[in-house]
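[Solved] Which block belongs to which protein?

Original post:
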Amino acid sequence: MGAMTLGSKPTGTAREVAALFLRLGLTAFGGPAAHIAMFRDEVVARRGWVTDAEFLDLLAATNLIPGPNSTEMTIHLGYVRAGWRGLIAGGVAVSPVQHYEGATLLDGRGGPWNSFVFFSDPDGNAWAVQERPGPG
C-alpha cells in the first residue's frame, strides 16, 4: 500500500482511524513524545498512510498550534487518512483516554479533560497548562 500524498483525496475510513487511535490511546504511556513515536511507527512504517516527510510536516504544524501535541497529531493524521470524519474520529478516540490516564496518574482524581501541568518560569510566574480547565 502506497503512502497517501498530503492534499490528495482521503482513502481511509473514520472507523479505521478511530480503531487505531483508541488502541494507541489505551496502550500508550510516556507522554506526548512517546505517543507521537508510536503514531509514526503505526502510520508511516506499518500502515503507510503517509511518508516520513509528510509525518514530519504534520508534526511541525502540530508544534505551531497550542495544545496537546499527541491529540493534535491524531486529528491531523485522521484528517489526512479519512477527511473530516477521520479528523473527528481521531480526536474523539484518543483524547479522553489520554487525559483520563494522565489525570489519574498525576493526582488520583481522574476523569476526562483533567490533565494539567503546573510550572514556574525563571521570573517566578506560575503557569498552569491544560486543555480545558479542570480541578486545580
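(Second protein starts here: sequence line, then its C-alpha cells.)
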Amino acid sequence: MKNAMLKNAFAEMKKTKSRFLSIFGIIAIGTGFFAGLLQSAPAMKVSSDHYYDRTSLSDIRLVSTYGFDDNDIDALKKGLPDVDVYPGYFTDAYVNTDSGEKKVARVYSLDKTGENNPYSSLQIVDGRLPEEENECVIDSGKLLAHYKVGDKLTLCGDEDTDIDGTLSVKEFTIVGKFASPMYISDVERGNTTIGSGSVYMICYIPESCFKTEVYTQVMINSDELRQYSCYSDEYEDARDALEKKIQKIADVREEERFDEIAGDAKKELDDGQKELDKKKSEAYAEIEKNESCLTQKNSLTKQSLSLKAARKRLMNRKSSLMRQKRSLTQTGLP
C-alpha cells in the first residue's frame, strides 16, 4: 500500500512538474525567510552590544533631586573600587524654534573642553567638539536637520524654570552634530518635567558653563558588566548586584547628607538668630538713647517754659513798679 502511494505521488509530480517546482520554491523561500528572521535578532543584539562597548555606554546613570557633592562621589569610589565613576551635570531648558514655539533641550556637560567623554562617547558626524565656553554640539536627529554648523542657539527659561542659577552661558554657537549610544532613535529623546513633557533636542556644552554647587548626575561603567552581552541574563544579574551595592551606599549617604544639610541649615539659622539678636540689641540701645534724649529734651522744654513764665512775671513786676513810680512822681513824692 505504501509503495503504491509513493508511485502515485511520483507519477503526479511528473505530470505536474511545474506546479511541484513552484510549490517547492515557495516553501524554500518561506523557510529561508523565517530562518533569516530567527537569526536577525541575535545578530542585531551582537552588533548593538559591540557598538555600546565601543562607545562606552554607561551601565548605570544616577540622578538626585539634591544632587551629589564631593562626599557622595568619594563614597561611591571607595565603595565601588572596581567600577569607573563619572560625575557630571545636566539640566533641561527651553530653546526657541523657527516657528516661535519653545521646545525643550536637554543639556549635558562635557567633562573636558575639546575632549570626548570617557562614558557614552559621542560620535561626531559633522563639525567638531566644543573648544570654547560659548560653543555646543547638538544631536543629529531628523527633527534637527534644519540646524547647521555655525547656527546660534539660545537657551532660556520661563516663569517656572530659572536657568540663571544653573548656567553661566546661555548663548552658543553650534560647532558640531553627534550620534550618541544613549539615543538610538532618530526622533525619541526622552521625557521631561517642563514644557510639553517631551525632549526636543540633546545638547552638550563645556562643564565650565554649569555653575551649580553639586553634580546633578553620575555615570557608572563596569568592566565586569562589559564582559557580558547587555541582553543576557548574566548581565542583568551582575547589574542587579551592582545596583544593590549602590543602594547600600545611598542608604548611608542619604542619612549623612540629611544631617549635613540639616546642620548647614541650623548653622544658617543660628547665625541669623545671632544677627537678629545683635540688631535687636542695637535697636533697643538706640531706642533707649533716643528716649533719654527725648527725656532731656522734655526737661529742657519744661525749664524753658519755666524761664519764660519767670521772665513774664519779672516783666509784669517791672511794669508794675514802673507804674507805681510814675504814680509817686505825679503825687509830688520824692
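Accepted answer:
You had them paired correctly. Confirming on the second one: The two ends are 189 Å apart (CA to CA).
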